[in-house]
Amino acid sequence: MTSGNIFLAGVGGQGTLLASELLSEAFLHSGYDVKKSDVHGMAQRGGAVTTHIRFGARVYSPLIEAGTADLLIAFEKMEALRFVHFLAPGGVVVANTQEIQPPSVLRGIEPYPADVEARLRAAAGRVYLVDALSAALALKEVRAVNVALVGAASHFLPLPAEAYEDALRLRLPPKILDVNLAAFRAGRELPASQGGTA
Amino acid sequence: MSVPSRENLVLLSGNEAVARGAFEAGVKVASAYPGTPSTEILENFANYEGVYAEWAPNEKVAVEVAIGASMAGVRALSTMKHVGVNVAADPIFTVSYTGVRGGLVIVAADDPEMHSSQNEQDSRHYAVAAKIPMLEPSDSAEALAFTRLAFELSERFDTPFFLRSTTRIAHAKGAVKLGLPVVPPVVPGIVRDPAKWVMLPMNAKRRHVLVEERTQALVEYAETSGINRVEPGSRELGIVTGGVAYQYVKDAFPEASVLKLGMAWPLPEKLIRDFASTVDRLVVVEELDPHIEQHVKALGLEAQGKDLIPICGELDPKIVREGITGVKTALRAPETVPGRPPNLCPGCPHRGLFFVLNKLKAVVSGDIGCYTLAALPPLNGMDLCVCMGASIGAAHGIEKALGKEAHGKVVAVIGDSTFLHSGITGLIDIVYNRGNSTVIILDNHITAMTGAQENPSTGKTLQGEKTHEIDFVALCRAIGVEHVYPVNPHDMAATEEVLRREIAREAPSVVITQAPCVLLPDHRRRVKHVYEVLPDLCVGCKACSKLGCPAIEWVPFTPEDAALAGKKPTQQGMTRINPLMCDGCNQCPPLCKFKAIVGKKS
Question: pLDDT tens digit string along B381-434?
Fold first, then answer.
C-alpha cells in the first residue's frame, strides 16, 4: 500500500478528531505526504463528525471521493452505515459496536436500525465490528475508546505498531499516555478475534 | 523517549500554518473575534513567545486595533470569518486609503457549504470593492508561505493585504516546513504623518489617487512574481483556478494545463491571455462566485465556468471531473439511516430556558451561538435568526410593527459574548425608543459555539491573564434598563415565573440566565451527581423526552417486552438515562409526574 484513503466517522465528543490526528502523524513521520480534513463548529455538539485522511507520495485534494476509501473507521455503529458509500470496492470497515442514539431515536420517533450489521456486510466485503468501548472501560478510561479503535484499524494499514505509538507519545500529555498506549495495544488485538489480518 | 520527526516537517492545519506564518513574519499584535472556520488562528498565535494576541468584542474593533499597531510601526494581524468581514467593513474600506507602516494582514475565512455559518458569501468581492490585494493559499504549506509574503508585500506596496481562506484550507491539515522568524524592517514608534493617516476629505482625495496607482503596480507584480504560476500540460484543456479548488483540479485532471492563481486580486491580465492562447478549451474552476470567470470573460476571452461548476457549496474532485467532462460516475447510493443533527450538550443551561420559552409560546428572536441549536426539534425554540447581535433590534422591530398585538409575546435571546459583540447597541435602541421588549442574556460565561473562548464578561484574556469581568446587571442598568433580573435556567419553575412577569411588563426588561457552560474545565472537573430512571415507575409518557437531552434515551417495547417488565401491554417503551452522558443538571426530574427520575446512589 503506497497510497490510500482513510475515512473516519463518529459522533461529536467521541474523540474522532484526535484519532485522525494520531493516524495522520503516524503517516507523516513514516515518510508519506499526508492531508487530512475535518469540519469543526456545529458538528462538535453531538452531530455526525467525519474526517478524511489521504496518504501517498504526493497528495492533492484533502477530500476523499465517495467510492474510493480503502478503510472506513466508525466510532459508532450506525455512522459506519451512513458513510459506507465512501468505501472503495474491496475496502475494509472497522466499526465500534457502541450505539449512540441520535435525537429522533432518543425521543422515540424512529427506531435505531436493528439490522446495521447485516446491511454493513451486504454493502462491504470485509467488515470488522469491534467492542472498543468495553476495551476502554476495562482500562477504566472511557475516553480511550478512540485510541482503541485506532489500534483495531491499524491492522489494515501499512505502518508498524511503533509508528502509532510514537504518534501517541508526540500528541498526548504524560498523564494520559500510558492508559492510551494500553488502549492502543488492546485495540490492536480486537480484529484478530474476527479473523482480521493486515 | 525519542519521537521520530522529519526535520522541521510538521502536520499543521491551515489555521495553525497562518499563525506560524505570522509569528515567523515578526507580527507583534493580533486581534480577532472568534468565528468558525477562523478561530484557531489566534488561539495558536497567542501561544508564541513575545507576541500580544487578544479577543476583541467584535471584528470592527479587531481591525481597528491592528490599524493602530500598524501605524505604530509593528506588523499586525486581524482574523475573522466571512460574516465578520461585514462587521469590519467600515474600517477596512478606509485603511485601504491610509495604507500601512507595519505590515497589516486581514484574514477572511469563508465557509463554502455553510458547515457552521448563516450564509455562503464570497470574501473575494471585498478585495475588489475595498481595492485591497488578496492572497489565497491552496493548502497548509502555502498558508504559511503566503502569510509571510503578505506582510512583506503589505509594507512594500503600502497597503493592507487580505488573506482568504476557506473551511477546507483552515481545518485541513497538511505537511508544512517550518521557517525561522524574521525581524521586520520597519522600526516601531510613532511617526506623525496626518496627510497619510487622517482621512479628512482633502487627504482622502489624494490617497485615492495613490490607491489606483498601487493597484496598477500590484497587477504588474501579479503578472511577473510567480505567485500565479502556469503548470503546462495538455493543449486540449486549460484550467484557471485558485485556493483549494486547485487541489481538486490536480486530482481530477492530472494531465490538464493549469494556471494556478495564488493572488485572488488584482488578477494578471496578460498572464491569463497568454495562458488562454496555449489551450483549446478554457475552463475556470473556483468555489462559490464566478469571480475569476467574470474577469476572464471581461478580457474578451471565451471561457466556461459556472455553467459547469456549481455556484453553491463546496467542490470536490468528483464535482470538478463530472462538471467538466459531463459524464456522471455511477456510485452506490447512500444508506438511509436516522439523521444525526447537532444538539445542545447534556446539562446545557440553554435547554432549561428554551423549554420554558416553549411552554410560554413566546415568539423568539434569536441570535448566533450554541443556543441557535434550540431552533431544532424538540425545543423548536426560535422564530428568527439573522446575524450576530440582530436578535435585539429585530425583537424591537416586531414589537413596533405589531404594537399591542405583539405585546406580551416577543423576546430576544442572545449569548454573553454576542451581546457584547453587537447586541448592546440594540438594547440601547430599545431603551431610547421607548420599546418594551424582553431581552434574555444567556450568560454561560464563555463563547461556547466556537470552542470556549474568553470574552469581556469572563474575567480572563486570550493569553490567560486575569482581567475585569463585566457585570451585566450593572451594565444594563447603566444604559437605562430599570428591570434586570438574573435567574438560574436549570430552575425552570423560577425561570418561568420571572419570564411570565417580564414578558408582560410594559417597559424594557432584561433577564439574565446565569449558569456555566458544561464544557468549561471547572464544570467538567466537579463531581457529577447523575440521575436515573426507576423502571418500575416509568409509564413511557415521554414528558422528559421533550427536553431533547442526549442523555435521556428511549427503550422501545414490544407487547412481550411490556408484559415481561410488568407494564400495560399498550406501553410502547420506557426512558433510560445514560450514566456516561448525564451531567446532573436536575432539569428532568421535575418534568416527571410519576417521580421516576431520581438521583443515582453512588
Answer: 999 999 999 999 999 999 999 999 988 999 999 999 999 999 999 999 999 999
Taking an 8 Å cut-off on Cβ atoms, the answer to whether B37 and A170 are in contact is: no
The answer to whether residue B545 neighbours chain A at the CB level (below 8 Å) is yes
Those residues whose C-beta lies under 8 Å from the C-beta of residue B374, and which sit 6 or more positions away, are B344, B350, B351, B354, B366, B381, B382
Q: Secondary structure of B61-73 in the HEC alphabet?
A: HHHHHHHHHHHCC
For residue A111, the cross-strand partners are none
Q: How far apart are CA B403 and CA B436, in angstroms?
A: 10
Q: Looking up cell 430552575, which residue turns up?
A: B491
Maximum CA pair distance of chain B? 88
What is the average pLDDT score of chain B? 96
* Residue whose C-alpha is closest to residue B240's, from B200, B299, B192: B299
The sign of the dihedral angle between the CA atoms of B396, B402, B406, B410 is negative
Exposure string (b/e) for B474-499, b if CB count within 10 Å is 16 or more?
ebbeeeebebbeebebbbbeebbebb
Query: d(Cα B333, Cα B143) in Å, to the nearest integer?
Result: 36
Question: Exposure of A137 by Cβ count < 10 A (0-12 exposed, 13-18 middle, 19+ buried)?
Answer: middle
User: For residue B345, which of A146, A103, A143 has the smallest C-alpha distance?
Assistant: A103
Closest of B55, B52, B58 to residue B89, by C-alpha:
B58
- Measured CA to CA in angstroms, residue B553 lies from B542, B589, B601 at distances of 10, 15, 20
> Could you give the CA distance from residue B91 to residue B160 in angstroms, rounded to a whole number?
11
Residues of A whose CB is below 8 A from B248: 60-61, 63
**Residues A34, B173: C-beta atoms closer than 8 Å:** yes
Kindly provide the ipTM of the predicted complex, given to two decimals.
0.94
